[in-house]
Design brief:
Length: 317
């Protein structure tokens, strides 16, 4: 069995954008990143006790893992938790592609184990789940999660691991005010009933739900997220304006309210973080208690926006 309970902070830090090259407009997010800036991010997060860092090989083909290791240099390994992923679509043709990809991740991250290891996409659950078992037994991975899996795929992975005395302990799916398919499919209920941690990624819809962007201030030109979101920003105005007014009453921003909503729904948000100021927002969000009426109002406004933000890699839950 897994040696210890899965205990992580209430918020995880996502490093998808850390896989960008760092030049403006060059990469999926178009963020400008610097080693000193990301080091400041790490220092502030660690000082606030928010110490879980989520990454993946697929984020810049390993670049995010390497950049994260550089930013964490100087922190003792016991002071933070690492979460990374096996992406089936990137699997090599060796005898054990899962172990091979994990080994490369461990090298880039400068560690001998990861605290949480995910099957990133459900290309073939029956094929890719069994290789996790010897890695759990060896201690190279401490806990297993599945990402972008539907209920049937979660159950199959759990069955396979269960036969060896392990289990799926976490699910990580796209979940935001604009995309609640995991809730409608019963996955959130399943996680609550079976003590499985649900990690919600894209809670801020790559910036579109922060209130920062709008028709007059679009997402960075040339970035992939700009192509996805800039056209729908006008339809999000009523929602982000209401999020802003709810936040204003609490000394918080629209982004803080989006994070608070995800926490209120019983999930652990994975917040993409490229600036130290984002840490302050997450800390504020942890102190926000939304009323049931506010949650219902925000969800109604989100539904009224009638937008589809499902990623190209996602299937319907």
């Amino acid at each position: 069995m897994t040696s210890r309970a899965l205990t992580f902070p209430a918020v995880a830090w996502g490093t998808w954008a850390w896989g960008d090259s760092g030049a403006a407009g060059d990469g999926y997010f178009g963020s400008q990143l610097s080693e000193s800036g990301l080091r400041e991010v790490v220092e502030k997060a660690q000082s606030n006790g928010l110490t879980l860092w989520d990454t993946a090989v697929a984020y810049g083909m390993g670049r995010a893992e390497s950049v994260l290791a550089q930013a964490l240099a100087g922190c003792h390994r016991s002071e933070y938790q690492l979460s990374t992923k096996f992406t089936p679509q990137l699997a090599g043709d060796g005898d054990d592609p899962v172990a091979d990809m994990l080994g490369q991740s461990l090298d880039r991250l400068g560690t001998d184990h990861v605290d949480l290891f995910w099957i990133h996409n459900p290309a073939d659950v029956a094929r890719w789940t069994p290789p996790l078992i010897p890695l759990l037994r060896s201690g190279k991975i401490k806990h297993v999660g599945v990402s972008n899996h539907d209920m049937e795929q979660i159950a199959l992975a759990d069955q396979i691991l269960g036969e060896a005395g392990f289990r799926v302990e976490a699910v990580q799916n796209h979940y935001s005010l604009l995309h609640r398919s995991s809730e409608r499919a019963g996955i959130l209920d399943h996680c609550r009933e079976h003590d499985v941690r649900f990690f919600s990624y894209m809670v801020l819809e790559q910036g579109a739900l922060t209130g920062t962007y709008g028709p007059a201030n679009p997402l960075p030109e040339g970035s992939s997220r700009a192509a996805v979101y800039n056209g729908i920003l006008p339809r999000l105005r009523a929602l982000t304006d209401r999020m802003g007014s709810i936040g204003e009453d609490r000394g918080a921003s629209a982004a803080d309210v989006a994070i608070a909503w995800a926490i209120a729904k019983g999930t652990t948000p994975v917040i993409g973080v490229t600036k130290a100021s984002y840490i302050d927002g997450a800390v504020r969000a942890l102190g926000i208690e939304l009323a049931d009426e506010e949650i219902a109002e925000l969800e109604a406004l989100a539904d009224a926006a009638d937008v589809d933000t499902r990623g190209w890699w996602e299937h319907e839950m």
